[in-house]
Amino acid sequence: MKKWRFNGPLLLKLTSLVLVVTLLSVGVTTFFVARLAQRSLETRAREDLSADAQMISLSLSEALAAQLSDPGALQEQVEFLERLTKRTIRILDASGQLVAGSTPSGFDLKDYFAAYVNLEDGSVLQVFMAKGEISNMSRRIARGSILIAIVVAASAVAVAYLVNRSITNPIQDLLAMVRSLQERQFGRMVLVRSTDEIGQLGRAFNELSEILDDLFETISSREGQLDTILSSMDDGVIAVNMRREIILANRAAADLWDLPEDVIGQNLFDATRHEELMRILEKTMDARETFTSEVRVRPGSERTVAITSSPLQDEKGKIQGAVAVMRDVTSLRHLEQMRQEFVSNVSHELRTPLTSIKGFVETLLNGHLDDQQLLERFLRIIAAETDRMIALINDLLDLSRIESGKLKVNKAAVDMKKIFDDTVLLLQSRAEEKQITLENNIYNPIIVEGDEKLLRQVALNLVDNGVKYTQEGGRVWIEAEEGLDHVEFIVGDNGVGIPSEHLDRIFERFYRVDKGRSRQTGGTGLGLAIVKHIIDRHKGTIAIESRVGKGTKIRITLKKIS
């Protein structure tokens, strides 16, 4: 008992000494641990805050882009992110004025950690975190350090392991997640194993990742839809801001103006070098009205573009730029010109025989009906002019049916030798009147795929033209050159020939090399146009070669049936 009494005070002293030493050790350890923890947490907090700021700037990109059209959307997004991240967020413009966010009462910068991000539009994003959060975490770490100092080594190892698993790993996961967000790899999740602040932070990051993933997917989908719509448009679309910089240009516009791939952000005039286009858009922005105009793509070019330019306005009516919708109307203007020429030619071709008929009729009615010889001569002329008009109208009807697609092509096996034989027989008497030798040098049947009625019309027009425009004593012939699956028919003559400058237009409606001579021979000016359309409907080809004074050859190619 005495021993225990002796030992008791010693143990008490030793215990007290150990306790004091332990307390001192724990105190010193705790102090240094707390200081080190404070610094580490402050460093980590600043890093995390910077990462948060970068992440927040990304999440605000859409709201910043839409600020001009919807200023309230930016404030709503900032408030949402403040609730989500537990951070104080402010956006200041270049002059230091508050654009979005708020300043809490009693706000003092020395009580907060701050991170700043310069945004693309010149404004600054400020993100604040209270330093008190770090102090609380430091106290918790100090208490943990005291417990760790007291427990046995094995327990210390276990505790270290648990701390490593419960603190270090989640933080590393969070850092990896932040890096993924910085790289726009949204949708990544952190495995949450605890309910403490780190666990709460992990869940907050997971929620934020889901939100950003959905947001990015929505934005990408809308951008994809817009790109698809704009890319599929035949009309060109170019939009510029008030600085005359291109903010949108679809594929059709790029092809129309030969724009480079990186045209977005470039000055419109620098990209297109087209003063008229720039003038139209500037006029639209200045007058705030829609304008339409037609311009040539390049000086001296026949390519014509119809431009409709409209102002771009935000919801408050403020001008933000202009958008131009452009359509290539070159073919339309060419068709309009052809229509005008067609109407003019038809009017002229009908007016001439009608005027002649009217003159002869008036002459007869003015006292010459009793002159039998004059009556007969005038009636013959009237009949000939009437035949000319009937032929013209028939050709016009045929051409109209062909061009409108109403003329059906009933393809079958057709013997072109027989068609040309019949054509020669039909025109033989007319050729003999001019002492023209008319030959069909096709000696064997040649079967092609086509419409017999239409191909007879082709043969008649071609051979008849040869007879019309060949001088007396001349020669018109027909021959064929067979290939593997096609056959080429040549209708040639040694007539007057056609000057080379007329060959490109010879198949146009009402186009005549010598209008006076054509009318004398009874031509309507539509025969070769009809021939070309018929050959095109048969998926064949037609070509002409001619030399003045030497004659003309017209070659047609049709699909052969073996």
Q: Would you give the CATH topology of the largest domain?
A: Heat Shock Protein 90
Morphology:
elongated
Lateral strand order in the biggest sheet: 6-5-9-8-7
CATH class of the largest domain: Alpha Beta
What summary fits the major beta sheet? 5 strands, antiparallel
Q: Count helical runs.
A: 15
By secondary-structure content and strand pairing, the structural class works out as alpha+beta
Description:
Helix content is 55%, strand content 18%. The protein has helices at 2-59, 61-65, 71-85, 131-150, 153-182, 197-232, 251-257, 268-272, 275-287, 330-365, 372-404, 416-433, 452-468, 515-520, 527-537; strands at 88-92, 98-101, 112-118, 124-130, 236-241, 246-249, 291-296, 304-313, 319-328, 412-415, 437-440, 447-450, 475-482, 486-493, 541-547, 551-559. A 5-stranded antiparallel beta sheet has the order 6-5-9-8-7, with helices on both faces. The protein has 4 domains: 2-150, 2-Layer Sandwich (Beta-Lactamase); 233-328, Beta-Lactamase, CATH 3.30.450.20; 329-407, Signal transduction histidine kinase, dimerisation/phosphotransfer (DHp) domain (Helix Hairpins, Orthogonal Bundle); 409-562, 2-Layer Sandwich (Heat Shock Protein 90). Strand 15 (541-547) and strand 16 (551-559) form a beta hairpin. It is an alpha+beta fold and 562 residues long.
